[in-house]
Amino acid sequence: VVPEFRGSNWKGSVTSRSHSDIGDIQKISTRGSQATCSSCQSLFRGATTFERQLSVELNPGSTSVPPGGDLLHIRAVENNDTLHFLFCSQGAPALLLVHTNSSSSTVQVNWPLFSARNTSGSLKVVPESSVLYSTAVVFSRLLEYDDTNNTADPTSDFFPPYELQNFTWSRLNLSGPTALLCGTDATFTNGSLCLKLSVFDSEGRGLSPPHLLHTSNSSQMEVWLDGLLPRANRSRFLLELQAVGGAYPLSRVDTRRSIDDEFTPSIFKVSQWVSAPNGSSDVLGFVQWKPVAYRQTNPSLENATPCRHSDPRPQNGEVMAASSSLIRAFYPEPEPFGLNMSFGLSGDPFYNNTKYLSWTVLVGIGSPPVDSFSPLVIAIMAVGLGTPMILLLLGGLWVCVRKRAACSASSYQPIN
Amino acid sequence: MAGSEEQRSLLGDEDEPLPGGKTSRGPGRPLPAICDPNHLLHRVVVLLFMCFLGFGSYFCYDNPAALQTQVLQDLNLNTASFMQLYAWYSWPNVILCFFGGFMIDRVFGIRLGTIIFSLFVCVGQVIFAAGAWTNHFWLMELGRFVFGIGGESLAVAQNTYAVNWFKGKELNLVFGLQLSMARLGSTVNMNIMGWVYNKIAALVGGPGYTALGISLMIASATCLFSLICALVLAFFDKRAEKILHKEQGKTGEVIQLRDVKDFPFPLWLIFIICVGYYVAVFPFIGLGQVFFIEKFNFSPAEARAVNSIVYIISAPASPVLGFMVDKTGRNVVWVIIAVISTLASHMILAFTFWNPWIAMSLLGVSYSLLACALWPMVAFVVPEHQLGTAYGFMQSIQNLGLALIAMAAGAILDSRGYLVLEVFFCACICIALMAVVMLYFVDYLRGGDLNRSASARAKLQKEGTADAEIKRRRSKLTEGDLARLAPMSAFGLRNRYLSRLGAQLPDHCSTHLSSLAHRSVLK
């Protein structure tokens, strides 16, 4: 499905500088402590721009460090609604977004049940009647295949997949409203898979490519695979994602063509995996990405590599719930859909080339943000087209005036 | 004087039937037709070599554009460094536009000059290929620099040869053929290099800088071929000189940099148009391939084809549009139309997903139209004796602009993407548009020739002819005085038109030129 490009839905763009850089992640929050990010000034007015008060809480309600992994809760409050971002490393990394229509809703966790990972309802957002919508994404598997013919067609020659629920995950490393999680499989000799979650208090753009546009209704997840020893020289990787979307599952991926590649050079597409009532254009929740990954730690055009996604397919809800404490605890009967992101096209360098791969995805509720022309582009076009027009008008006017002057000067004919 | 003689013979050329080979002078010569420098058949053989003389340099100039994805990937470059390959080509020509003609006339002579410039082209391309082969980017830049030293001057030498052999005979046809050959070189390059690379990659066991180096080395065979043509031409020319006792050809360029301070305001506006326009065309073609692949989902082969459409269209469109401009006059209006339609095509590429064949074809037509309308305007605003300097200066700053903008374009693409790049090109075109709008008014207020219709020009010329006859008769008396002025001859002009820009003067332009020649008399 390729919908028409809509150019003017959004007010403008700005790079948010409200968060510290990736480099200096420091542990500012330990168990139970709270860190509030001061809301930063938004440069844009208008109904689409929200500012949210963020409060970060690690392992809410737990008295000790949970042995199986951390649960991060970021509460994003606006005037009359609250967004709960929950990120959990017990089992496969999972991100849960819960939208409520109350500014005082909270998260309750029954820790023994939660860690046991066998009963639903051990994590609740109360009051339960305030919950409007929820969606969750699980990063479930990392697949590797040997692309001997360099076709980048992942159909055969798969190695046994890495199950992310079996990884050994680090503790969550918090820095303001961002959290870093790294994990390794038992079979890894070196290297790791890392996920970095960022939650935003206002509209803005990612600091590094692909510079995804985000709102306060979305969170950004950056996934990177660093230094892993591939099992073949010509290995390529796929990442399996599973998503749950409450009443309406995330059953379709829309790929939107955009003429604007200002923030992600040479990428003219944006894909969004949406949860929407059948045939409706109202989107309740989304997973959005640009089809590009980067092969080096400093992402830029020259180390960009395209990626493709498979069609979303229904998955077994029980298997998904078993893989993650968060899903098990919140959803009684999840109806997940899953898709594979495959990195690299035919002819692109293999993973072995740089041993690094990073990909960024946005998870949010409501309609996904839409890029529009930056003020720079509009200004250049306005000045560029306007000046010749003005010149033409002024010149025409001047010529007219001179002509008239010449006419009136010569209208006095000599009498003889 | 030599100059006016040529103009008259060019003028006379119109009335002659084109296959004017029946001029069998010197009866009793025992040479067979194909070896007789006087005979058409021999000239056709020479023409063949003349056409292929420039083929190599045109073929190799756009090698980077044809292999853009491969160059970027195999050498792990960003676009800014990739565009350095084009910038390094332009740098030597900032200077050489002034001295290329001088060196051919005074230092080397046409024969040695042509061989030397071909050698530069050939060696430059080999260095370029060797740089790719060994994965040394600086060596590739050096190669492009050396290639640039030869490339543009070789075009001047090629035209000088053409004039020397075909003056007063099939000259306009020959110029047309040479231009078509140049376009053919560019087009073949765009469409064949990807295929060559794939074959080589399959042969050496995978893509990589080795495959790239070998492909470029194969491309340098075309330069070697051109070098052989230069040697053969030198031989034929020497032989013809012996048999016919004729002089070695001269470009006839006289360039005096101190004339620059006397350039009138409209000429500066023309320079701005020239720079503003061409910097939005050539660097774009250099970067086009990946743009069509990424934005319009074209296959690499398709992308190369659509990228070369500008050149393909330019070959047949130039004579037609040249005829049109010449018959209607009003050059400024034509330039305005060309600039606006180029702006439109860039905006279509930037802001829509319309099939790029539309925009690129429009670009091809407007590019040819601009060449036909813009370059002859220079001759209207400067006196004849400054034409050489004016054209030299125009090409020089154009090369300067190309070098700078090529670098800027690469950097913009890396950091801001294609949309901003296209907007940047639109801005360049807008600058050209402002200059041409100003030129229109300035010319209007000065009552200049630039925007006069062809009939008005003819009328003026008619009035001037009588004076011209008198003047010319008088000039014969003072030939010594006039020799110092050494006006830019018609074929000297031609050399400038027929640069890489594809500004071809159409067949009937000789009449037009002759009116130019008398222009100083008209005013």
Automatic annotation (TrEMBL), chain A:
Q: Where in the cell is it found?
A: Lysosome membrane
User: What topology does it adopt in the membrane?
Assistant: Single-pass type I membrane protein
Name the InterPro entries for this protein.
NCU-G1
Write the record's keywords in alphabetical order, separated by commas.
Glycoprotein, Lysosome, Membrane, Signal, Transmembrane, Transmembrane helix
Per the record, its GO cellular-component terms are: lysosomal membrane
Q: Which residues cross the membrane?
A: 376-401
Tagged with keyword NAD = no
Q: Which residues form a coiled coil?
A: none
Any Pfam family matching the protein: NCU-G1
Query: Can you tell me which family this protein belongs to?
Result: Belongs to the GLMP family.
Q: Which proteins does it associate with, and in what oligomeric form?
A: Interacts (via lumenal domain) with lysosomal protein MFSD1; the interaction starts while both proteins are still in the endoplasmic reticulum and is required for stabilization of MFSD1 in lysosomes but has no direct effect on its targeting to lysosomes or transporter activity.
Its annotated function is as follows: Required to protect lysosomal transporter MFSD1 from lysosomal proteolysis and for MFSD1 lysosomal localization.
Report the protein name in the record.
Glycosylated lysosomal membrane protein
**Naturally occurring in which organism (per UniProt):** Anabas testudineus
Query: Which lineage do the record's taxonomy fields give for this organism?
Result: Eukaryota, Metazoa, Chordata, Craniata, Vertebrata
From TrEMBL, chain B:
Q: Which gene encodes it?
A: MFSD1
Where, subcellularly, is it found? Answer: Lysosome membrane
Q: Where is the Major facilitator superfamily (MFS) profile domain?
A: 40-446
Q: How does it sit in the membrane?
A: Multi-pass membrane protein
Q: Which GO terms describe its molecular function?
A: transmembrane transporter activity
Q: Do you know which PANTHER family this protein is assigned to?
A: MAJOR FACILITATOR SUPERFAMILY DOMAIN-CONTAINING PROTEIN 1
Enumerate the transmembrane spans: 40-59, 86-105, 112-133, 209-236, 267-293, 305-325, 332-351, 357-381, 393-413, 419-442
Record note on quaternary structure: Homodimer. Interacts with lysosomal protein GLMP (via lumenal domain); the interaction starts while both proteins are still in the endoplasmic reticulum and is required for stabilization of MFSD1 in lysosomes but has no direct effect on its targeting to lysosomes or transporter activity.
Q: Which UniProt keywords apply?
A: Lysosome, Membrane, Transmembrane, Transmembrane helix, Transport
Name of the protein in its database record: Lysosomal dipeptide transporter MFSD1
Q: What family does the database annotate?
A: Belongs to the major facilitator superfamily.
- Ranges for the region named Disordered are 1-29
Q: What does this protein do?
A: Lysosomal dipeptide uniporter that selectively exports lysine, arginine or histidine-containing dipeptides with a net positive charge from the lysosome lumen into the cytosol. Could play a role in a specific type of protein O-glycosylation indirectly regulating macrophages migration and tissue invasion. Also essential for liver homeostasis.
What are the GO cellular component annotations? lysosomal membrane
